[in-house]
Specification:
This protein is an alpha+beta fold. The chain has two domains: 58 residues; 182 residues, no CATH class. It has three helices and ten strands. Strands 2-9-8-7-6-5 form a six-stranded antiparallel β-sheet, with helices on one face. Strands 4-3-1-10 form a four-stranded antiparallel β-sheet. The chain is globular, with a radius of gyration of 28 Å.
Length: 242
């Protein structure tokens, strides 16, 4: 009976701890073999910032890879979206970019990475947009924790550079890929950015620690009670023999 109580106390703590962990999910995008970009070019496309030119060359070659994480327990609109690493051609520094996640249940998961820079009289924009599209329930009613891109109706990438309001006139250069390779895999953790070399480890949150302490306390109380009862029984036996 006492062993059963002890196991129940530990199980309660473990169950509460598991429920407190956030579902941090890894999402990667990379070039799909055999895919060539569909191009849209407009305006004067001869003058851009140096990093935009590197971005364009990488886009044309289909040379890109990105690793994001989001947290299914975080709040809308961005769900804790974090860029872990990114690369288009020789461009790997995306520290000045903003991320945005849009989710339409059972229809669309979209991630945007963008930046607008004012230089002279112009504004220069750089954007990567990733669209996961579905109409038969693979995405689900809430943000998914696992998914195979091959199950979706479409997984596409837009890689764009733009220029507006400058002395040399506006322009845009858009490379669109009709498919992208990638994966969406759950990595349980406590939130934040994972180590780029691997998934997030399961680090207990404050609530988890509290439930663990509660479980250990219950276990200790049972053990102390058993010891006290055994001691009392021993004393009673000795007294009765006297």
């Amino acid at each position: 009976m006492y062993l059963k109580r002890l196991l129940c106390g530990v199980a309660l703590a473990a169950g509460l701890g598991a429920g407190a962990q956030a579902a941090v999910v890894d999402l990667t995008f990379s070039h799909a073999a055999g895919q060539t970009p569909a191009l849209q070019i407009g305006g004067n496309t001869s003058v851009y910032l140096p990093d935009q030119l590197a971005f364009r060359e990488g886009a044309l070659a289909g040379n890109y890879s990105f690793h994001f994480t989001y947290d299914t327990e975080a709040s809308d609109p961005d769900y804790g979206l974090t860029l872990v690493s990114g690369q288009v051609g020789t461009l790997t520094d995306f520290s000045g970019f903003t991320t945005r996640l849009t989710y339409i249940p059972s229809s669309l998961l979209r991630i945007e990475l963008f930046r607008a820079v004012g230089a002279g009289s112009g504004t220069y924009g750089t954007m990567a947009m990733f669209n996961l599209l579905d109409d038969d329930g693979d995405l689900g009613a809430s943000l998914p924790t696992s998914l195979d891109f091959a199950d979706l109706d479409a997984a596409t990438v837009d890689l764009d550079i733009t220029r507006a309001g400058s002395g040399v006139g506006g322009g845009y250069y858009r490379a669109y890929f009709g498919a992208t390779d990638g994966r969406l895999a759950e990595a349980p953790g406590s939130g934040g950015s994972p180590d780029p070399g691997g998934p997030v480890g399961a680090v207990p949150e404050p609530a988890t620690w509290a439930s663990m302490i509660l479980g250990f306390g219950l276990a200790g109380r049972v053990l102390r009670r058993r010891t006290a009862e055994a001691y009392a029984a021993s004393n009673w036996s000795a007294a009765s023999r006297a």
